[in-house]
């Protein structure tokens, strides 16, 4: 089997992190997250890792070094990864896709789920400093962040669209089919 590289995209709370963890645990994938290098920069600067601050870190570095700066980091790491399955979590921009599509066997997968379901997931997991206390109105406002507005447009370029409005078991079954090609 040649290397399969799955890029996960979708709006906040659509199931990207869950899917990536599942692919790592069940199928032995090597996982990368776009937010990892951003979080490292924020931590090195002593900046709280809130969604807003991570957006600022991303924006400043993209403005200074190009829209594809984060995708280049991820692509380089992916190419140097041994193994047959790689999952990249958090593809958000067309510049990301342009860089990642240069990788052999790259497939963009778009995850979608209803807004209310995504809000429920975000506030339960508390990944960012401000998630646990976020109101629904704030979550709706978060949908207007620059990175989030581009994500919806990526659906049209995805090779696979997965509806994740159902149970975790349904999502796992869809991911299994994606990896096995059945």
Task: Explain what the structure shows.
- By secondary structure, the protein is α/β, with parallel strands linked by helices.
- Helix content is 53%, strand content 14%.
- It has nine helices and five strands, in the order βαβαααβαβαααβα.
- The chain has helices spanning 16-27, 35-45, 51-65, 69-79, 94-100, 115-125, 136-142, 146-154, 168-180; strands spanning 4-9, 30-33, 85-89, 106-112, 160-163.
- It has a five-stranded parallel beta sheet, sandwiched between helices.
H-E string? EHEHHHEHEHHHEH
State the helicity in percent bands.
40-55%
Number of strands: 5
Using the CA coordinates, give the radius of gyration.
16 Å
Return the structural class. alpha/beta
State the CATH superfamily name: P-loop containing nucleotide triphosphate hydrolases
Number of helices: 9
Largest sheet: 5 strands, parallel
Low-confidence stretches: none
Shape: globular
The CATH architecture: 3-Layer(aba) Sandwich
Mean pLDDT: 88
- Provide the β-strand percentage band: 5-15%
The CATH topology label is Rossmann fold
Q: How many domains, in number, for the residues? A: 1
**Head-to-tail CA distance between termini:** 14 Å
What's the CATH C level?
Alpha Beta
Strand numbers in spatial order across the main sheet? 2-3-1-4-5
Topology:
Layout: E1 4-9, H1 16-27, E2 30-33, H2 35-45, H3 51-65, H4 69-79, E3 85-89, H5 94-100, E4 106-112, H6 115-125, H7 136-142, H8 146-154, E5 160-163, H9 168-180
Parallel strand pairs: 1-3, 1-4, 2-3, 4-5
Helix pairs in contact: 1-9, 2-3, 4-5
